[in-house]
Amino acid sequence: MVTFQVSRVETAPFDGQKPGTSGLRKKVKVFVQPHYLQNFVQSTFYALSAEKVQGATLVVSGDGRYFSKDAIQIIIKMSAANGVRRVWVGQNGLLSTPAVSAVIRERVGHDGSKATGAFILTASHNPGGPHEDFGIKYNMENGGPAPEAITDKMYENTKTIKEYLIAENLPDVDIAAIGVTSFTGPEGQFDVEVFDSASDYVKLMKSIFDFQAIRKLLSSPNFSFCYDALHGVAGAYANRIFVEELGAQESSLLNCTPKEDFGGGHPDPNLTYAKELVARMGLGKSSPQHEPPEFGAAADGDADRNMVLGKRFFVTPSDSVAIIAANAVEAIPYFSGGLKGVARSMPTSAALDVVAKHLNLKFFEVPTGWKFFGNLMDAGLCSVCGEESFGTGSDHIREKDGIWAVLAWLSILAYKNKENINGGKLVSVEDIVRQHWATYGRHYYTRYDYENVDAGAAKELMAYLVRLQSSLGEVNEIVKGVCSDVSNVVHADEFEYKDPVDGSISKHQGIRYLFEDGSRLIFRLSGTGSEGATIRLYIEQYEKDPLKTGRDSQEALAPLVNVALKLSKMEEFTGRSAPTVIT
Predict the structure, then answer these.
(1) Contact at 8 Å (CB) between 573 and 472?
(2) What is the distance in angstroms between the CA of the first residue and the CA of the last residue of the chain?
(3) CA dihedral 131, 94, 320, 241 (to 10 degrees)
(4) How far apart are alpha carbons 309 and 302 in whole angstroms?
(5) By CB neighbour count within 10 A (0-12 exposed, 13-18 middle, 19+ buried), where does 33 fall?
(6) In this structure, are residues 14 and 158 in contact, taking their beta carbons and an 8 Å threshold?
């Protein structure tokens, strides 16, 4: 057994190591600077209580993007030096973000050990490669992201750090080979266990869904299916779940080999970046060569986001979570006893609110950031939740879960088609959505993303919108000047949230303009990019009349879009005449 020594390495603080709701994300060139990653990891260890480090079990894995393998070896060496007892690593360093949450909550080691936290190496839906993005975040013993109290401590530590601990003479561990490697250090034995990335997660999914019912659907001659992992970590699960467990054809999987650079693509599951899937589903600019499948879905780099498509039909994430909630009790065994409550992020459309009211469910509107859902779930207040940025999930883990959302949709399709799987016309994705609109009304919804905007200009735009809120008379003059048919703004504010569980208050969570007819304009600065600023503009209009729910979304929203662009002086502040992405 190899014996290692602990080295204390002198270092100095770096600027800008404040983790956001999704951890720390920067370009690879920033992370590979001497001591940069090490400073962040040591600052995390210092922020945790002693029992979460000394003698603890930690998970270290991620989405497989460029620099992950080097980072894993560094974190293993630092864990050993800081007194961690064992580190669990998914084979080849691969674990989806939802699988990490599942492993923390569900996995028991061969010696009875349980994980108390995890370093997750991902920049989510951002590109990967030597010149692209890398990221790291820490999840707690409940499987969810570190709360603000911990991330604030981590940040404070990065500003004062003078040294870090590392076992420099610890040899690299072969993370391709399943098994346990043991070492001896000043505090005794230290183990690194490499385990199968998919087993724990697959077991959890089988306990939630009726795999037999989904398998029957996928075997129907009338049903066809397509899943695109965008060369992210979802590929490590797709074959196991969809092919081996559910009997789908291997040819139904697209881009399911995880790659360090995501095949040169942008692993963001939306209509702009999931080009191959969008074309195959009949939603591209040219007609597909073959008849599109009945159902299609895509994942982002770390497999926590999802996009759901029907044949020539796009399901908005806001509609998706509402439809899952409306059908969960009937279609998904895990929820057969009823839903505890539902929640959405503030920018997500109010489609879920209407379902909650109709089904008499507890409902919560929270800031963007999955940790707010986690608090509700830990308190037993929420079963299903979602956000407009292609994140959907439930209380089975404490992260959003892209494959879970796909299995939820397949479960709903299987339930709706249980009488006609072997013959007759299938109830399609589009049928389910249109029926939902007929029952609950439709929330026309779109999001405009202006990426890599000058950070100063973005802050000026947001400050201007806050100032404008003090005079609704002036706001409504601008609105009527653009389009007299648009109703009046009756309320404008910056969204603030008081957590019903711990009483914490989150301020400045997005600028809202609320209209008399239920329409909304939301403006937010997003922290998910690694350079510049991203301005997100959300536009929503509610339509109850069943005769008016079938319009083209962009056409229905055009007057409100014009109002939003004029009201915000978007082009004047940013120099952009069009958004980078429209969803």
Answers:
(1) no
(2) 55
(3) 140
(4) 20
(5) exposed
(6) yes
Handedness of CA 227, 318, 139, 78 (dihedral sign): positive
Rounded Cα gap, residues 142 and 106, in angstroms: 10
Task: Please give the sequence-ordered ranges of beta strands (E in DSSP) within 40-85, or none if there are none.
Answer: 57-62
pTM for the complete prediction? 0.93
Can 553 be counted among the known catalytic residues? no
Residue 296 zone, left/alpha/beta (φ > 0; ψ -120 to 50; rest): beta
Instruction: Say whether 404 sits in a helix, a strand or coil.
Output: helix
The values of phi and psi at residue 473, to 5°, are -60, -45
d(CA 248, CA 260): 26
- Helix, coil or strand: residue 322: helix
The per-residue pLDDT for range 62-111, each reduced to its tens digit, is 999 999 999 999 999 999 999 999 999 999 999 999 999 999 999 999 88
Q: Which of 61, 68, 101, 124 is catalytic?
A: 124
Check residue 244 and report its DSSP letter. I
User: Can you name the residues that pair with 536 across neighbouring β-strands?
Assistant: 449, 524
Residue 125: closest CA among 374, 387, 395: 387
Query: How far apart (Å, rounded) are the C-alpha atoms in residues 543 and 79?
Result: 54
Asked whether the CA dihedral 34, 36, 37, 40 is positive or negative, the reply is positive
